[in-house]
Predict the structure.
Amino acid sequence: MSIDVVTFGCRLNAYESEVMKREAEAAGLKDAVLINTCAVTNEAVRQARQSIRKARRENPEAKIIVTGCAAQTESATFADMNEVDLVLGNTEKLERASYGRVAQFGIEETEKVRVNDIMSVRETAGHLIDGLEGRARAFVQVQNGCDHRCTFCIIPYGRGNSRSVPMGVVIDQIKRLVDNGYGEIVLTGVDITSYGSDLPGTPTLGSLTAKILKLVPDLKRLRLSSIDSIEADDALMEVIATDQRLMSHFHLSLQAGDNMILKRMKRRHLREDTIKFCEDVRKMRPDVVFGADIIAGFPTETEEMFENTLRIVDECGLTYLHVFPFSPRPGTPAARMPQMDRAVIKERAARLRTKGEAAVLQHLKSELGKEREVLVEKEGLGRTELFTEVELDANTPGSLVKARIKGHTHRHLIAEVIGNPL
């Protein structure tokens, strides 16, 4: 074997896994498994530990290197595992030198953990990669870290404070990716709506988005990863209203639909703010599709509070729900709050998922007979502007085709291509 990478968690982790693999290979590392962990939930940590044990069983002679947010926040958890050879922090995992030392000198028992203080990091490098997911969609990191301290979240302690990639670096990478044939770019980060607050002139996500669309005219599609709607600036709203190359799909960091729970989460918005944002965007883009992260069973959540969260799905017209049963993370304020019964948490998460499945089915039905532009991701599969998965008779990854929706399953559309590639 050469180098295998196992990735857990967010799109940013997936992006960084590509950087890790490239840097490790360039450093001459061989016969290694890199495990890029997530710290969002206890379940994510459990799955990482399970994956480590499996990797050792399947690769008894390989070097097992564990990194990512969970490795940053609880390095001892992984260092204590006999299967693990080395633990790297979130900064160290992106540095070629980290892998070069292993390739040249091996791993000494005295240096099993290389995790520095993430809060001391002041800059985020714009790592250039060739893209992800074949030649269809590429991810560009524009930001890392988070300045907010939501009571349930351990991520700032894994990622550090918010740092932005300079606008010129972002645009240069997007130009490179478009020149390499990518039809769609996704801007990614930990809290991308905080973009620019640490840069000279304090640009915003909206001004960055506008500049990208202006300076890269050959870019066919631009998409945003998860956004915090309360931080959406006027420039971003203007782009949403005026440039159709910014896709009509927005994933919201919502978390709850009850104001008291939002306050106890230390969120910065009220339920009314989210409803207004969705209404404003829908006026500009009538066909917009929203997704949202929602936590079920946050400490002190009553049935009435949970009902408010269920209602906001309809009030905002949410389609894609990412539901997380509340998981207390050690070191966070929410872990010290009165906890809900696990059976109640599980039951509420199931109700939310059922509601999400109904919303997806309603969306799929509403697409019947429509014509959509589909970015082909791999043979026979692509996604519309609304990020809806489509089965169709096209087999050139990266091509953009016009298709007519003629049917659906319970989770994706079925379409036929009409006309030549766009």
Remarks:
- The mean pLDDT is 89.
- DSSP finds 13 helices and 18 strands in the chain.
- The CA atoms of residues 230 and 312 lie 16 Å apart.
